[in-house]
Design goal:
This is Major facilitator superfamily domain-containing protein. Keywords: Membrane, Transmembrane, Transmembrane helix. Residues 48-442 form the Major facilitator superfamily (MFS) profile domain. Its main location: membrane. By secondary structure, this protein is mainly α. It has one domain: MFS general substrate transporter like domains (Growth Hormone, Chain: A, Up-down Bundle), CATH 1.20.1250.20. Helices cover 79% and strands 0% of the residues. The protein is built from 18 helices and no strands. It has helices at residues 2-12, 27-39, 47-61, 64-67, 70-81, 87-103, 105-113, 117-135, 141-168, 175-227, 237-242, 254-270, 272-284, 289-317, 319-337, 343-371, 378-403, 412-442. It starts with a helix and ends with a helix.
Length: 443
């Protein structure tokens, strides 16, 4: 295990350890080694590297950005298209979207590692845009579930993994910052798309408002496809066939196991405030409908800064300590949410929680990239990690919905559940900090 830690530390500092078998006098082996060394030189900057960040920002803008817009759609469905359905039933469309987005990484990761990242972007772009266009034509619950829940979720999932994995192959010393900028695209997208739908729907209707979002997404995704390039060439057919969806060696890494346990626990409760801040403001704090809507926008906007600024600290202090601190801070804020019953307090809460929770969303990416001993497997390891966080996301909001009674203004049990899960995740991340420090001293 100490040797695995040494490999991770060397990789984190800008290089990957490699070894060759056979005679160095062989011209074929020398050429192969020279090619590998050239691939392993990580840019850590330059126009090409930062263009990948911009392209990945747009991918995040149209994956998490579109998914997080569902709150606006849920409000519309409850009062218009799906009046006969309960809030809990309608919310399953958005929850399933997020679950598919995250867990698709278990498939997308190996595909990325095989060199087919452009195929992921093309396929994901098609499904996402097609799903939004089909959503604009839907009138029944099952149609919306298939178009918006399944189709859009698959498309967003296919473009999500490349958006974070490719940045990790271009940066080491500035990886947390680059990943934070990338992840900020999700927050910016959710703010912009939510406002677009909110403002256009009364003027041009549900169908065309949804199509406008689809056309904007299409334009952004075309830009990403045009500028993004894989740093390493596609693998040989032999290597591609050998790559599996699950790298079992990852489960031999104790730091990785601790990390995915923390991600699972944290993601159970992390998004519950995003789902319930509007209802809480209207029923508990007597905030007007328009202002309660902007509380979600404020939270998402603050999350954008939370994905960038902590990244600067993470590049200096390490991703794991900063992630642990922000997770625990998120839990404290959720507990404090119980005592807030005014608009001013909710604004402050939205800003602070959006900021610290944004770091919890973005920093696991750099943490997994740090833990993987070979960047050729970074997509697979990330896919496995996101699968566990996706399971947490899937079960968290339905459980909170069962514990919460919006009609009777009873949120305490749901809030306590969310905070307790997040504090459990923060505790596990703190254990990871201690374990990595122990391995470093031991080595």
């Amino acid at each position: 295990m100490a040797s695995n830690m040494d490999a991770s530390i060397q990789h984190s500092n800008g290089g990957l350890t490699s070894s060759s078998t056979g005679s160095v006098n062989s011209p074929a082996l020398r050429a192969q080694d020279d090619e590998k060394q050239e691939q392993d030189i990580i840019p850590n900057g330059g126009i090409k590297a930062w263009l990948q960040v911009f392209g990945a920002f747009l991918l995040f803008f149209n994956s998490w950005g579109v998914i997080n817009t569902f709150g606006a759609y849920q409000t519309y469905y409850e009062f218009n298209l799906l009046q006969a359905r309960s809030s809990s039933t309608i919310s399953w469309i958005g929850t399933f979207q997020g679950f598919i987005l995250i867990t698709f990484s278990i498939v997308g990761g190996p595909i990325f590692d095989r060199g087919y990242f452009r195929h992921l972007i093309v396929g994901g772009s098609f499904f996402l845009v097609f799903g939004m266009m089909m959503t604009s034509l839907c009138s029944e619950y099952y149609q919306l579930f298939l178009a918006q829940g399944l189709c859009v979720g698959l498309g967003a999932g296919a473009i999500f993994l490349p958006s974070v994995a490719i940045v990790a192959t271009y940066f080491t010393t500035k990886r947390a910052l680059a990943t934070g900028i990338t992840a900020a695209g999700g927050s910016v997208g959710s703010v912009i798309y939510t406002i677009i739908f909110r403002k256009l729907q009364p003027r041009i209707g549900f169908a065309w408002s949804t199509r406008v979002i689809g056309f904007i997404a299409l334009g952004c995704l075309i830009v990403s496809l045009a500028i993004m390039r894989s740093r390493a060439p596609p693998r040989s057919k032999t290597h591609q066939q050998a790559r599996k969806m699950v790298d079992l060696s990852a489960f031999k890494s104790i730091p990785f196991l601790i990390c995915i346990a923390g991600m699972f626990l944290a993601f159970i409760g992390l998004y519950i405030p995003f789902f319930y801040i509007i209802a809480y403001a209207e029923t508990h704090a007597n905030v007007t409908e328009d202002m309660s809507f902007y509380l979600l926008s404020i939270m998402n906007a603050a999350s954008a800064f939370g994905r960038i600024i902590p990244g600067l600290l993470a590049d200096r202090l390490g991703s794991v300590p900063v992630m642990a601190a922000c997770t625990l801070a998120s839990a404290v804020l959720i507990y404090a949410w119980i005592a807030i019953n005014s608009l001013a307090g909710l604004i402050v809460f939205s800003i602070l929680y959006g900021f610290v929770s944004g770091a919890v969303v973005s920093l696991p990416v750099t943490t997994v990239a740090f833990l993987v001993p070979d960047l050729s497997k970074v997509g697979t390891w990330m896919g496995m990690a996101f699968c566990f966080s996706g399971l947490g996301f899937l079960i968290g909001n339905p459980i909170a919905g069962t514990l919460t009674n919006v009609e009777n203004d009873d949120y305490i049990r749901g809030i306590v559940f969310a905070a307790s899960c997040v504090v459990a995740g923060g505790t596990v991340f703190s254990m990871l900090v201690g374990y990595l420090s122990f391995l470093k001293r031991k080595s």
